[in-house]
Amino acid sequence: MKLAARKVLSALPVGALLVGFGIVGCTPPAEVKVPPYQPPTSTPSTDLKNVPVGMSGCLAAACHGAPARELLEGKRDKNSWQGSGSCWAAVDPHTAAYSLLTDHPHRPVKVTAKHIMALYAPGTEATDDARCVACHTNPALATPERFNDPHARALRTEGVSCESCHGSAGGWVSEHTSWKGDRKEVCAKFGMVPLYDLGERALACMGCHVGSPADPKRGLPVRDMNHDMIAAGHPRLNFDFAEYTRRLPVHWEEKDRAANRPRALNPAKVWLVGRVAHAEAACRLLADRAERARQGTPRSPWPELAEYNCASCHHDLRPADEDGTHWRRDLAYLDGRPPGQPPWQTIWPMTPAAGIGAPKRNDAPLKSVIVLMEARRWPAPVQVEKVVNPMITKLQAGLRETVGLSDEEAVSRVKIVLPAGAPQVPEWDSAVQLFFATAALERARNPAPSDVPKEFGQILGAFRSENWKEVTENLNAIRVIQKARP
Ligand code: HEC
Ligand code: HEC
Ligand code: HEC
Ligand code: HEC
User: For atom 16 of ligand 2, which residue has the closest CA?
Assistant: First the structure.
């Protein structure tokens, strides 16, 4: 196997790790072009629930299209909602999402859609392939029923706009200005996604940033970044809820909607919630991949290689590192797995990566799935469905519980799940997971910039220069410092 893949892999943590401890940089206010408002012609009712209507209405000046200057300067208050849409239009990375599928991406890319499609589906434009469109715009516009509808086609160019996260607005666009009563019930009734709930928010992001099965009830298609697409050149999806949340320009005032008061998110809690939600999203996708493979759905390969640790197959064939060892023969890496079987999902943060959450795989919360996926023979799809579906139910309950934790409880849980001593980090993905966890814990302290251990800066450099020794040394030093704190 060529080492080109190693480049693909190593580019990832660097891309994902452009973290610092400052506030997310908001570029100066740009002029926002607001499309003309078209008042809804029919009275939206629950008949239009989950029907996409596009964002032009949202961006009207009297709605969410007021100047976003204050939001862009990081000031938020009870009137922030007025500039939410303008803030999105001015600085949100999701505005470029659809353009990435065209010949004119709105940001520099390493690999173009044309290049990916030449290998993945020769002769098809990415904008005509529902599998691509599903994540690069409001997914509801990419269902088989809507795919060729000219109106849907036009709306898709908005990219990942309001309805992609808040839910297709047909059912709620008129009513939502005067809602009263229990927010959760109202959202469910009209089809708005309850993004104020941290667990629901994480799952909404992960629909695209991890992938998800089709959801016919909400009118959403399958979203699946599989190994075929990755091998054709699509970047592997890296996602850490805490880090991506931090990087998303915030166009709202963070609120406890039940108590109707502002709240501040604790970064360690965001990380913990993200971790559980991530496991749920990954298991849902796995169960769906298995089901599609069992039913013989076209282009649903099995085993799906993107479920496994990339580096276990795409690796350097050096016999040993300078000191005579090799990470793949390290017992910490094997961790009781049969030699020759790649580990499942080190990229998702719920496996025993670097001992996070469980010192041994036998204690891992996802043990039954791990043992099956890492068995000597690839498990049959039907076996996978049997084991993964009960796990999803368990994780759903776990997510509710985690969302309900107080900040203090969440912080102490994060401290508990991190390795007690200096971590024995077996490979890159685990190191990245561990780094995100330590960074979230650090941010939860809200330190002054001068109070952040210098190792955080050093480790970023080490990740970028692929210096494994420095990565592990800095991780160890960070854990020692964090543990010594009261
Ligand atoms: C499961 C969701 C998903 C699917 C399916 C998907 N993409 Fe993406 N794509 C993303 C995300 C998320 C990113 C941004 C990755 C990041 O920065 O974390 C992205 C990034 C890209 C980029 C930018 C690459 C670069 O070098 O920066 C291109 C081009 C692209 N996608 C094209 C495609 C094409 C073509 C398809 C269909 C073959 C496709 N996408 C399918 C989610 C998806
Ligand atoms: C990437 C996902 C995403 C996209 C895209 C998105 N939002 Fe949001 N939005 C959020 C999240 C998360 C919240 C916080 C939800 C909460 O606390 O209830 C939010 C909150 C809001 C709020 C509440 C503001 C407040 O201070 O009370 C408004 C209004 C809003 N968004 C409008 C929009 C509009 C208009 C668009 C499109 C132009 C849009 N959003 C696009 C994720 C998104
Ligand atoms: C409908 C699909 C979809 C949903 C839902 C979604 N995203 Fe994205 N997201 C994308 C795509 C596609 C890109 C790539 C855009 C680009 O890089 O230009 C992206 C890019 C991003 C980026 C920029 C990444 C980078 O490398 O700079 C951040 C940060 C982000 N998303 C966070 C979130 C968060 C947080 C949520 C949930 C509140 C969310 N996204 C929900 C599809 C989605
Ligand atoms: C079980 C083994 C296995 C796993 C795990 C695996 N791959 Fe692959 N991958 C392969 C094989 C086999 C090929 C085809 C190689 C060839 O044709 O030379 C391939 C091809 C590729 C290619 C195209 C290689 C090239 O040189 O053009 C890329 C990129 C790639 N994989 C990335 C990934 C990523 C990213 C992951 C993790 C999400 C991953 N792979 C997981 C076995 C694997």
Answer: 196
